[in-house]
Design brief:
mainly beta; Chitinase A, domain 3; Thrombin, subunit H; 2 domains; 4-stranded antiparallel β-sheet; 2 helices; 11% helix
Length: 169
C-alpha cells in the first residue's frame, strides 16, 4: 500500500496512480503507397465487355507502387488499399491505355509487309529503332502504300477494372 501524503504532493501521487495506463500502440496494417511492393489479382475489360487482361486463377501480379508499371488510373485507384480489399471501377481511355494518337499512324511501302498481311486488321510485330518489338495493326491498304496503326491495341477504350490486393510489403 502507498503511504498517504498530505497536500498537493499527495494528490499528485494519487492522480498518477489512478490515471489509465496508455494502451500499447497498435501496429497499423500496411496500405498501398509509394514504394510498397504489392501483389494483386485483377481483371480488365473493355467498353464492350470483352476481356482485355486478367490473372485470376494464375500468378499474382507483383509490382512496386509508384514505379509507373501499371495503368496510371489503376495505380491511383489502388492507393491506400489494404490486404484483402477489392475494388471495381472504370478508367477513362486517357487513364488506361491512352487516347488514340494520330501521329502513330504511319504509311509504309507495301513491299516491307509480307503479302499475306497486306490486309486491314492484320497484326504484325515491328522492331523500332531501339530494337524493342511492338505490335502494330494494318489500318488501311492504299495500293503500294499501307497505313499501319502503332497505337496500343486498346488505345481509345475505357477500361473496367476489378482488383484485389493480395499482399503488401
Amino acid at each position: 500500500m502507498v503511504p498517504m501524503r498530505s497536500g498537493i504532493a499527495g494528490l499528485a501521487v494519487l492522480v498518477a496512480l489512478l490515471a489509465p495506463t496508455p494502451a500499447p500502440a497498435q501496429e497499423r496494417a500496411p496500405v498501398v503507397g509509394p514504394g510498397s511492393r504489392v501483389s494483386l489479382e485483377y481483371t480488365l475489360r473493355l467498353d464492350d465487355g470483352s476481356l482485355a487482361d486478367s490473372n485470376v486463377g494464375g500468378e499474382p501480379l507483383a509490382y512496386v507502387h509508384g514505379s509507373g508499371t501499371l495503368l496510371p488510373g489503376l495505380e491511383r485507384a489502388l492507393e491506400g488499399m489494404a490486404v484483402g480489399e477489392s475494388k471495381q471501377g472504370t478508367l477513362a481511355a486517357k487513364e488506361a491505355y491512352g487516347e488514340i494518337d494520330a501521329g502513330l499512324y504511319q504509311e509504309v511501302e507495301a513491299a516491307r509487309i509480307p503479302e499475306a498481311d497486306r490486309r486491314v486488321g492484320a497484326k504484325l510485330l515491328y522492331r523500332d529503332e531501339t530494337g524493342e518489338r511492338r505490335l502494330v495493326r494494318v489500318h488501311e491498304v492504299r495500293g503500294e502504300r499501307i497505313v499501319v496503326d502503332m497505337n496500343h491495341p486498346y488505345a481509345g477504350s475505357d477500361v473496367r477494372y476489378d482488383v484485389k490486393v493480395l499482399a503488401i510489403e
